[in-house]
Amino acid sequence: MKSLTVFTPSYNRAYLLPQLYKSLCNQTSQDFEWLIIDDGSMDETRTLVASWQQENEIHIEYIYQENQGMHGAHNTAYENIQTEFNVCIDSDDFMPDNAVAVILQACANLEENYAGILGLDTNKEGEIIGTVIPENLTAVKLNELYSIHQVKGDKKIVYRTAIVKKYPKYPLYENERFVPLDYLYLLIDQDYDLKPVNEVLCIVEYQADGSSMNILKQYRKHPNGFAFSRVSRIKYGKTFKERFKNAIHLVSSAFFAKELSWLYKTDKPVLVFTAMPVGVLLNLYIRYKTR
């Protein structure tokens, strides 16, 4: 069995996947398999992947499912991954030639208190996304990396598969296709650390149709998914600023969902009540910007 699974959720991204495929074929270490979760694509993804499987350059597993959104694809991936470690590389991203080798070296003899490792993303020009991880950190929680250590920008996480499988799946909401992935990461943070690795594991390219570029529309289209995430962020937030910000967003999401019961699912009701006026203003702002 291979040591690492690189998994890729994909929805109508046949035009982007060849870039990732090429980078995986070029890896200096082939001790991995590629798991593609086709989340209901209506393009040529299935045919394209079948042609790559015929080429047999790398080991590829392909799973098709009805469209559930990114988080639903993650659920399916975690159900099917059997390797010791896993990493998600999105359909519009790719890996440096040495990324798998770097990952496996960093994960070798990883202590039990570590859920995995944390590495860097760059853009195509080689510029670090955000900031590097402070060199003095030998263990860190993902949430604390941003809220306490003030690190900026997306980072790439490699998790132990056995640890990920211990936690609940992302919920699925009718007529919604998005739940922020950090829900799972927050739960893992409560029990484990991540080992920082200041090396590039992923090269990212944000797409115009990606969730990162359309966040206000996402807030409006998937309010229950965001409300669910906000409840956990309020509970586990390390600073008052972080908790209050998420309380504001919870209020806004509850109004979009027309489900005010979300406001009573947090363990900090006074904070949510205090955030109510600003949350209503945020809701009105999002409505205006996405009208």
TrEMBL record:
GO terms of molecular function: hexosyltransferase activity
Does the entry feature the keyword Phosphoprotein, yes or no?
no
Domain of life, per lineage: Bacteria
Q: Where is the Glycosyltransferase 2-like domain?
A: 5-110
Q: Which UniProt keywords apply?
A: Membrane, Transferase, Transmembrane, Transmembrane helix
Annotated InterPro entries: Glyco_trans_2-like, Nucleotide-diphossugar_trans
Transmembrane regions = 270-288
Q: Name one Pfam family in it.
A: Glycos_transf_2
> Is NADP included in the keywords of this UniProt record?
no
> What PANTHER family does the record tag this protein with?
GLYCOSYLTRANSFERASE, UDP-GLCNAC:BETAGAL BETA-1,3-N-ACETYLGLUCOSAMINYLTRANSFERASE-LIKE PROTEIN 1
What name does this protein carry?
Answer: Glycosyltransferase
Organism annotation = Flavobacterium glycines
